[in-house]
Amino acid sequence: MSKKKTILTVMWVIIALIAVASVISLIVFPRWKGFFLAGSGAFLILNLLLSLFFISKNVKE
């Protein structure tokens, strides 16, 4: 497995874990705390997707 593919796979797994944790926080926590944690997770996912885009463009095979 190449270095680029390994990095991208790990990033996708981290994004999936954060997405699951955000959805669970909406269900488990009280109203505003759940919204805050889910919103923070969404912001983190957005940043990770942006970094994923730049990593895929700039890392050599």
From TrEMBL:
Q: Do the record's keywords include Transmembrane? A: yes
Which spans are transmembrane here?
A: 7-29, 35-55
What superkingdom does the record give?
Bacteria
Q: Which UniProt keywords apply?
A: Membrane, Transmembrane, Transmembrane helix
Q: What is this protein called?
A: Putative membrane protein
Naturally occurring in which organism (per UniProt): Proteiniphilum saccharofermentans
